[in-house]
Amino acid sequence: MSIELNDPALPTPRWHTLSVDEALDNLHSDADRGISNQEVSNRLAKYGANELIEKAGRSPLQIFIDQFTNIMLIMLMAVAVVSAILDIRDREFPKDAIAITVIVLLNGILGYAQESNAEKALAALKRLSSPRVKVVRGGNIIEVNGKELVPGDVMFLEAGVQVAADGRLLEAQNLQIRESALTGEAESVNKNPNLTLELDASLGDRHNCVYQGTEVIQGRAKVLVTKTGMQTELGKIATLIQDVETDDTPLQQRMTQLGNVLVSGSLILVALVVGIGMLNKGNFADLLKTSLSMAVAVVPEGLPAVVTVTLALGTQRMVKRHALIRRLPAVETLGSVTTICSDKTGTLTQNKMVVQNIRTAQHSLKITGEGYAPTGKFLSDTSAIEVQNFPEVQQLLMSCIFCNDAILQQKDGEWIIIGDPTEGALLVLSGKGGCDAAEWQHRMPRYAEVPFSSERKRMSVLVQGEMGGYVMFCKGSPELTLECCTHIQIGDQVRAIAADQRQQVLEQNNQLAADGLRVLGFAYRNIANLPENGITEADESNLTWVGLVGMFDAPRPEVREAVKQCRQAGIRPVMITGDHQLTAKAIAENLGIAQAGDRVITGKELELMDAQALDQAVIDVSVYARVSPEHKLRIVQSLQRQHQFVAMTGDGVNDAPALKQADIGIAMGITGTDVSKEASDMILLDDNFATIVAATEEGRVVYTNIRRFIKYILGSNIGEVITIAVAPFIGLTVPLIPLQILWMNLVTDGLPALALAVEPAEPNVMKRPPFDPRESIFARGMGSYMIRVGIILAVITICLMVWSESYTTSNFDGIYKPERWTTMVFTTLCLAQMGHAIAIRSNTQLMIELNPMTNPYVWGSVIMTTVLQLLLIYVEPLRNFFGTHLISPTELAVCVGFSSLMFVWIELEKLVIRWWAWKGQR
Q1: CB-hemisphere CA count at 13 Å for 489?
Q2: How far apart are CA 567 and CA 573, in angstroms?
Q3: Cation-transporting P-type ATPase N-terminal domain location, by residue (predicted)?
Q4: What would the mean pLDDT of 793-805 be, rounded to a whole number?
Q5: Range with the lowest mean pLDDT among 108-117, 189-198, 503-512, 701-710?
């Protein structure tokens, strides 16, 4: 008989509350025989394979089709169709329609290239979920694929294997499991099958259970499989990843808004031109051609390409600063971030345990140094001491060396640990004290040991004494190790331990723990003769207490400054970790993320909070401890409901849902799992929190430059539209054909816009709050600027148009040659935009005040575009294709003169702005 996997009477969190016998009874399994092959088949049919199920997404074809739902592209496609019909009617080659179609297709392909990056987070999760595993079925031990596991199977674990399903421990010998990818905790976890835990025990505290995707570090175990597939903790993460709906970035939202405004505006203008023209009994075909030209002029065809190239250039600059962008819009998104939610382990900290304090009967010492390099000082108050002059400290270092299975070695100039990081930190401590671990372990070889167990919380080893006899060294939980001690070492003397001395040790332990340190106690005992059967737990008595060691997963040294810069830039850092609340609080205060007395919310508290309570808490709380993946996701969502623009950093599998939900997910490149990387928008190549600050600066620069060239492009487009719209009302033909407008929008606008995209950062870019990510693309005076500049450009061009039409008619025997004066209009518009590009580099500084070498690309683009424009006039094949006409040097000089007025106007505006600011300060 099998049970229902989703039985509401037995939800997933309750397996850790059951005893071994209760768990076996609930799944109708046997610890020695497992379940029968027939039962395996039944359960496999009922519950499905032990694998993660992917929801169907958009097909590549659907992604490509979706590119053409953009409202601006739809309008261009309509223009292409109407233009082709008119050209075919007039028996002309439809070059305008072909050019527009090509541009539409290129834009579609460009958008497809950005979106078609397949979501690989689930694929990375799947790689964690299907190892080979040993199970017992029907009394026989066999090896099966992880996908074939079912609830009720009994599987075997040993060092080095990956756990293939969630399960309740039945038996375990010295079992340690690394769960950092799932829980975020750096240390491996000691497991104990004999525990029954409280219902509200967090995932990281369920020491009687194991979870899919984690790794066995040492020991072996027999496990009852309780959950498989999407019901596992890993499956929950997969569900969370797939359920997260990704919103458009601020830039995408602004571009959509821009498209809606432009298309709506152009349709209104087209309706006005056609309506008024028809009332004046104008020719419908001519009015339609005017409307087509206006429609093409309104749409900034080159803008998507310029934005994409700008973002791509931003990604290249970010790579140089050790940040890899996986999705282009994330470049600009970084500039809008208001809150950074960071994991602790490996992100804010080095993921390297470092001893910071030791306590003996007489001494309280601080230890300096960073990482695993065995260089540092022992400080008493502020004075360095020589360890050799302090016998009890020397004895403590001996205990660190011998009660240790780790190896400290140097590789490629870097110190690394092989083995448990905690034990590695003890070797580093001994190295700082001048003790060579390898030399001492050779001089005093180990004979026997009692390994660490979660019940005793101690480890003991027996080594040969240097002066004869043997020494047993013991390390472990300070409270439990102290219980085995009858003596205490003070200086070079060993005395019976008094009650007040015991109390002093316990108080020292509490002080170190309150500082967020992991504390170990050390003791030893001299033994005259080697026990016949080695040492046992019974020999862990009559020990001599030596002292305490407090260690810390130290913060990265550069993070404190990075946090300070974040606050200067109006960005709030928040720590979200699976680690203990005291440790999280201590590190947060050390880094400046939190202040003394600030509230810390734990996962248990968060479970009891509804959405409204959490929304109120996230405004002030900057530290969250003992949290699960669902908690991280809730925190990010709550911050977003408070209109915060959230970046989430992380490296574990447990971070993936929150990384995907966040406005920008930031994964660690070195320590990060494949799952976190695939769910992220950006990867830190150096795992350095400070790199986020550099990347944020680049994001702000990119957004500023995007606004700059949008002002440039749309100001020019508005001028074109007004010029085309006014021409019929003053009795002139449309001065520009669609092909010429496309040239201006793609080349005359496009090349200078790309040059403006690499304008260097403003001096105060990281000393101001982020701009509101919900602000309109036209905010902060940008809309009024574009309209104002567009009107000025149109006035200049219309004046030139009126003069040139009269000039060419009167100077060429009265023969009306519209292609000549329209070429002058075309040239004036293009050259005026060159002046605009030079002047728009700064909103306040005059061109003569700017160093031309800070952005030589602007000058290069202006020269190149001017040359290309002249080629359209003076090279016959190009002249014929673009419908231009030869103009004389005098006429060209007139075009240059009129177009220079655009530059003069913008420079005068800057002077007015300065005068107004000066007047306001008086």
Answers
A1: 23
A2: 8
A3: 14-88
A4: 92
A5: 108-117
Contacts of 638 (CB under 8 A, 6+ apart): 611, 614, 615, 618
Say if residues 122 and 238 touch (Cβ distance below 8 Å). yes
Are 522 and 498 found together in one domain?
A: yes
Cα 153 to Cα 813: distance, rounded to the nearest angstrom: 101
Total Cβ atoms within 10 A of residue 759: 20
CA nearest to 139, candidates 231, 244, 31: 31
The reply to whether 796 and 884 lie within a common domain is yes
Query: 861 near 752, Cβ under 8 Å?
Result: yes
Cα–Cα distance, 830 to 895 (Å, whole number): 10
Nearest residue to 339 via CA among 652, 736, 647, 791: 647
Here the tokens at position 312 are 């791509």
Tell me the two tokens of residue 542: 């009559």
Instruction: Measure the CA–CA gap between 224 and 154, rounded to whole angstroms.
Output: 5
Three-state SS annotation for 135-193: EEECCEEEEEEHHHCCCCCEEEEECCCECCCEEEEEEEEEEEEECHHHHCCCCCEECCC
Domain annotation covers residue 852: yes
> Do 34 and 95 belong together in one domain?
no
> In CATH, what number is assigned to the domain containing residue 679?
3.40.50.1000
Between CA 264 and CA 260 the distance in angstroms is 6
* 466 is a domain residue: yes
Of the three residues 668, 689, 710, the one that is the final residue of a domain is 689
904 and 839 housed in the same domain: yes
Tell which residue, 438, 418, 374, 363, has the closest CA to residue 396.
Answer: 363
Query: Average of pLDDT values for 707-723?
Result: 88
Give the pLDDT mean for 355-382: 91
844 and 906 fall within a common domain: yes
Q: For the stretch 498-511, what's the b/e string if a residue is b when 16 or more beta carbons lie within 10 angstroms of its beta carbon?
A: eeebeeebeebbeb
Q: Point out the residues that are catalytic.
A: 343
- Asked whether the predicted pLDDT for residue 239 surpasses 80, the reply is no
Distance CA 503, CA 529 (A): 33
- Alpha-carbon distance of 511 to 519, in angstroms, equals 10
* Single-letter residue type at 36: S
**What are the distances in angstroms from CA 458 to CA 190, 358, 482, 523?**
12, 18, 11, 11
Instruction: Say yes or no: 281 and 151 in one domain.
Output: no
Structural domain including 278 reads 70-112+249-316+696-921
pLDDT tens-place string over residues 835-856: 999 999 888 888 888 888 888 9
Q: Summarize pLDDT for 23-59 with one digit per residue, the tens.
A: 999 999 999 999 999 999 999 998 898 887 766 556 6
pLDDT value of residue 3: 39
User: Does residue 887 lie in a domain region?
Assistant: yes
Q: How confident is the model at residue 737 (pLDDT cuts 50, 70, 90)?
A: confident
The strand pair at 132-137 and 154-158 is best described as: antiparallel
Q: Of the ranges 11-15, 166-170, 536-540, which is most confident?
A: 166-170
Q: Of 666, 689, 712, which residue sits at a domain end?
A: 689
